[in-house]
Amino acid sequence: MSKIKLYDTTLRDGAQGEGISYSVMDKVRIAQELDSLGMHYIEGGWPGSNPKDMEFYLRMAKKRLKNAELVAFGSTRRANSLAGKDTNLRALLKSQAKIVTIFGKTWDLHIRDVLKTTLDENLNMIKDTVNFLVSKGPTVFYDAEHFFDAYKANREYSLKCLLTAQDAGAKAVVLCDTNGGTLTSEISRVIKEIRPQISVWLGIHCHNDADLAVANSIAAVEAGADIVQGTINGYGERCGNADLIPIIANLKLKLGINCIDDDKLKELTRVSHFVSEISNMKQRNDQPYTGASAFAHKGGVHINAVMKNPRTYEHIEPDLVGNRRRILVSELGGKTGILLRAKTLELDLSKEDPQTKRILKLVQSLEHQGYHFEAAEASFELLMKRALKKYKRFFDLEGFRVVVEKRSDKKITSEVIIKLKVKGIKEHTAAEGDGPVNALDNALRKALKDFYPTLSKMHLSDFKVRVLDEKVGTAAKVRVLIQSQDETDTWSTIGVSENIIEASWQALVDSVEYKLLKDKVN
Question: Residue 446 burial (CB < 10 Å; 0-12/13-18/19+)?
C-alpha cells in the first residue's frame, strides 16, 4: 500500500473543543512539534474568520517547516455571488498558505435548510470556488461536509459534488462524517463504491460522536483512502475528532503502512502529552498507546505473566511509541528516557552511572507529586543540571509577601514585597501587578534587573493552571505551566503545589534561571 498522508487539524477543528483556547504562540509551538513528528499537512485555522488565525499564518510564513505543508481552511463562496469578490477566499490567499482546504455542502438537507439555495447553485459554489483558488496558485483540497449522511439521502447528488470539485481542479476530495454517527461497515462500503470514480486523492475526516472515529478512519484507509484527517488526542467539537495518535500507531504497527519514520513513532507519547499541556487539557491516563495506564499492570496474575513475557498482556512493546511499562504494585521506571534527554543536553551520563538512577528516582518522585515535564522542557533541563552539579544559583529567596486588596472602587490590586540575596547583596523591593502572579513576576525581575540586565529581553507569554485532583476541592494540588520568550526562543517551566502562589513561584524561578543559564550569565 502506498504511503498514507497524515493531515492534522488540531489547530482548527481541535481548537473548537470545549475548554481549549490557543494563543498564537501556542499554535506556533504545536505546529513545530507536528512538523518534527513528520505530519504531512497541518491545518492552522480559518484565516478569514478571526485576526488570531491570520496572525498565525503570517508568522508561520517566516518559518521553515521540514516535513509538513501548512494548510489554510475556509468555505465555498456565498450563494449567488462571485468567488473573486468573496472576502473569505481573499483572506485564504492572503495567508500565503500553499494549500487551501475548502469545505462545502453535499447533503441536500443542508442546502435547502441552511444555505437556503438550490442544488445547482451549490454545485456552482463548489466549482467557482475551486476554480478561483486554483487559478491563483494554491493547491486545493475539498472537504465534502456531511458526506456519509448525504450519500444515504441522495447518492447521485452527493457524488456529483465530489466530481464537481475534482473536475474543477481539486487535488483531493475528503469524505467527512461530520455528525460522527456512521458505522464502520458503512464507511467501508461507501468508500469501496465511490473509489473507482475518484481520480484524485481521497481523504477521510471522522468525528467521534459514536466512539468510532479511529476505527472508521482505519477502515477508510483499508477501503482505499489516501489521506487521514484528525487531531492530536482527538480534540474537537462535541465528542471530538478522530485521534491521530492511535491512528498513526495502528497504521504503522498493525497495517505496516509507513506513514511516519520509525524514529518518529517513538515521539508519539511525548507529542501527545505536549499537546495536552499546551491545550490545558488533562491527559487521559487510559488513552491507547500513549496514556500513563496504557501499559500499566496491577492485577497479580497479569504482573506475574508480564514479568515472564510482556507479550502475554501487551499488544506492542511500549517503547515503540515512546511509552513505558508500569508495574503498579512496585512501580519500575526506565533509564532510557533520562539518557536520551541527557544526550540532547550534551550531559555525560551512562546507564550504569549511579547519577542516572538518582535522577530517575527524582523524576519519578516529582511526577508522583504532580509534575509533568513533557511540556516544560526548561524545568527538566534545570532539574538535570542541578542533579549533576552543572548549575549555579543566581539568587536566594529570603521571603516574599503577597497582598491582594479589593478597594472601594471595586478594583482589585495585587502587590508583592520580596527579599532576595543576589551575589551576596540583599535586595528588598516591591511591585504591583494585574494579579498576584503578575505582581510576583514584576517584583522578582525588579529585584534582579541591575544584576542581570539580560532579563529585560524576556517576558511571560502564557500562564496556565490545572487542578490535579478535583475531588479534594480547594485543597487540591495545582500545576502551573508558564511559557516565556525572548528575542529568539520560547521555553516552558512548571510548578506544583497545593498553593497556587507557590506553584507559580516555582515556575517563575525556573523561567528566570533558564534564561540566565541559556545566556551563559555569570
Answer: middle
